[in-house]
Write a structure and sequence with these properties.
This protein is about 25% helix and about 30% strand. The chain has about 1200 residues and is an alpha+beta fold. The chain has a five-stranded parallel beta sheet. The termini are far apart. One of its GO terms (molecular function) is ADP binding.
Length: about 1200
Amino acid sequence: MAMMEEGARSCLLQSRSSLEQDIRASYLMDHMISDGVLTGDEEDRIRSKPTRKEQAAALLELLLRKDNQAYISFYNALVRESYGDLASLLHNSLPLVSPEAEKSFSDGGTRYVQAVLSEGGVPQRPVVFVSRPALVNRVREKLYRLQKEPGWVTVFGMAGSGKSVLAAEAVRDHALITEEFLFLSVCIYFLSVFSLSLLILDDIWDSSVLKAFDIQCRVLLTTRDRSLADCVSGSKSEVAVESGLEEDQALEILALYVNGKPQRLPEQARSIVRECKGSPLVVSLIGALLREFPDRWAYYLHTLQQKKFKRIRKSSSYDYDALDQAMAASIQVLSEEHRELYIDLTVLEKDVKVPAKVLSVLWDLEPEEVEDVLQDFVNKSLLFRDCHHRPYLYYLHDLQLDFLAEMNRSGLEQRYSQGPPTSGDEECLYWFRFLTYHMAKANLTQELCSLMFSLDWVRTKAQIMGPAHLINDYVEYGTILDKEVRGHFQEFLSLNGHQLEQRPFPDVVQLALSQPDSSEVYRQALLQAQERATRGGLYLDWVNKSSLKSLSRLVVQPHQGSIYSACFSHDGTKIASCGSSKTLRVFKSTSGEKLLEIQAHDDEVLCCAFSPDDHLLATCSSDRKVKVWNVERGTLMRMFEDEHEEQVNHCQFTNTLRRLLLATCSNDKFMNTKLWNINKPSSQNTMFGHLEPVNHCCFSPDDAYLSTSSSDGTLKLWEVSSANEWKSIDVADMFPEQREQTEVMVKCSTWSADGRTIICAARNAVFVFDVETAAMLLEIRTSRLSTVQYCHACPSSNLVAIALSHYAVELWDIETSKKMADCSGHLSWVHGVQFSPDGSLLLSCSDDQTVRVWETKKVHTSSAVCLKRDSDVLFNNGDITVVAADNRNRLQDLIGIICLSPFSSLPPSLSLPLSLPPLSPSPLSPQVLEVPSGTSLATLQGHTRAVLHCQFTPEGHTLITSSEDTTIRVGPFSFFLILLSSLLWFVISLPVYLETHTSSPSLAPSPQVWDMSSGELLQDLVCHQGAVLACDVSPDGQLFATTSADKTAKVWSSASWECVRLLDGHQDCVRSCRFSWNGRRLATGDDNGEIRLWNVKDGTLLKICSRDNKDAMDSLHGGWVTDLHFSPDNTVLLSTGGYIKWWNVEKGEALQTFYPTGANLKRIHVSPDFSTFVTIDNIGILYILKKVE
């Protein structure tokens, strides 16, 4: 193997120390492997070294044993990975075969090379030139192969991709000219006298021209038609030219034209590059125009966006006067038939790749015919093919698509006058996704409204594509749709999108029945439900939903697992989220449509944060790593993995780009807060001061200070410029009564918009401090049963949002010290809240796997009554009476338990809510109230400990109470309401009482049965190895069943008190049971959401419900199965848990599911005819459901 030049080797040795200190070998080796100078085995040996520095040393040691090409590849890798200062150390010693070394000459190469190029007619470099070394080297490699035999090297690409410049640059090489070819000729300067001459044919379109040069010569050909060389003899090789430059390269060209630096170009420069996808032609044309008119950045960007290609005119040596002429020339070479088909591609959407079957539908041709046509387009660089998928996917460059749309504007409406093409083929999902786009483009407004305002379309597209695409359609085409009806459908999808992501797919009609009665969605759903009910379908109408106004604007389920962090982008259009799934997701804030998803870390991702320009996203994790991602490409830009030794809890960028820094904090003992310059491999500063984990860090609005919140009970403020501690606030002192007992953990902090106050959270409190004086200005105490997980100050008002462990978000006005709203809807701990940059929206994220977006103004002015789950219901000749305590009368934070006499004579006109006077009953003494006046008739004395439950006997004349004092008391009452209270959060449901006997469930494994008339203990049963959780008595009174935490259920004889059936098989606590009305079946439900149906006669298992329907919450029923009811004809079983389900008893299959807003339903009340159902969820919403007839 050839050795490295001595000058290059000496330069490497001299620079070795600097290189080992700074380079990250893993970044560089990918490029060197691509160049073929490094093998996979060599990479593995280097990666096996334990430290970064040792890896760098091993790479350099290997490099010194290789040749010139390895030196060049290493140099190019340094340039690509932004090690510019290190690359400069190697530049002067580059071997002459390197394209980078040739930059030392005015036009590339030695004087001899320049003379040969000039004689051969090779054009000079453009005035503004940026090298594309990877492509240049690829062309040179192909040319070197021609030394053995004549042949053709075809450089192909779309119009304006830079083929001619690339070909000229490839032959600007001393070794290539002196060693391989004795002469170069371009186009007409062809000489056949030299067998080793190189003929360059530039921009050839016609195969007949090519055949004239088929004389066993060596030819370099540039063309737009990849297949052009098929008509000639000899060996052939190809080099495909990408249609666009990298963004940095394109910006460099624009900067050279205007004599500036890329980083100082206006924002429109980046937009121009993105709009044309980095097309070298467009960038050069616009750059040349800007040289003459440097203030026209916005004008030329607008020109591109408006597709006014004629205004982007020639200002160089390019063959066409304007961009539109260059684009048109490519199409004119097609046959007339193919030209018409190509123009039809106007219907395609930008950045969307489609299979051939989509175009088969469009053109009404056989798939094989379509593939032949597409191959012709691909060969002529008029279409691009993604070969990484099967079947192949095809797409147009944005410039091609824009040009087609401009020239075919009038033909679109005619094309769709009979309606857009559709297909149900799985590979034709394109039409499901973009049908609305094409209809809008064709001005089919009426047809578009009919489609988008159809519940059938919503169901079909949501099931195939997911809800986010649908929501995005209503946002995108909102201006041409009826505003009111569009709002109905958009609200329905936004609030139920997380349900529509579930599999099995939910019944859309049932979901839609929960919409307001005035909604078009509800109207269509009710009509469909009524029609299906005539065919045996089961649907439930939520009849009292008009009293509830949802505050959420959007609900998204972006991850399978807890969500620990979510944040708005600085322009408010995107939301990023992360959590226990180890993934990072970015989605639209208007629709929830996924824009990006990355498997970000090896462990839980604890925080994510956008950079001020939204181009970058930082993440940190329990894996101790901090990563910075490119948002647009989803690529990893930087990883910091060596400095934090414990999990990294939080990360945040500075608020402005003046001096972009990233702050991180961790569970490290001492070096737990760091500042990073993302362009450097190590941290810039470390803050020393906290001796316990730091949970949160936050820059002040002007980026002058950084606040840190720590488990050591302090909030510290640091000067960013010096990393010195500025102030320290001992938050633990605010809890003097608790400090000695447990540590005080400061969870987080947030700055007011003016930077004068700072707000922090600890335990169940939020404190507001003056930044200058560190004096406390305000203290907000939330529920003592909850902890504050996060807080965030609104940038446009005095509001602060507080995330709480009891599933709620609260809004407080820190100016008036008043709570403005409770935002209910989450089903588990809320980990984070954040206002949008303009303060109009608020997001929250939770363990329930959802991100909710709220409209700040609507939340700000709303208030909702929250009921407690313990309630009783009376069904009386069609009238429904519900009694429950609410959150405005919490009875001194005690949980109320309510029971109605079954024969209370209530007036038919009684309406809810029934207003009762404020009550403060003792937990030991139940109160008896008259209905509907609410007059207290009696206070029942006798129990010595808290009363757990009360129950009227079926005839309504006797009341039974059970207590923690282990006694059951029986007393005569009739026609009254009884209200109790208890310090305990749980209430165990009592069974139906039969004549003079009762059995009582207990937290002990020994229920007792008493004679109610005498108070005599009839039986004390030791029946389970764990707590008895439920019991039920068979309709004939001969049997009763018990269920237990020992995962079993038992059936007992009421006559002998003996266990007659042991029912085992449940994998979790068996929490509920119910006999069928004919006594033949027993249903049991457990804490894993599984329901089992048993044959009472012999104890055999008949059916298992829910086995194959496990949902995202890792439960078969969204939670514990808490209540069960059979229909009077024993054909339907009703169950409650996280939601309500109706089952076909014979088949064990679900008939219908109702999803409440909250979860954890405790019990459900069922009317005698099984047509009305009443329950209350864990966030206090009352549901009165009636079967649709």
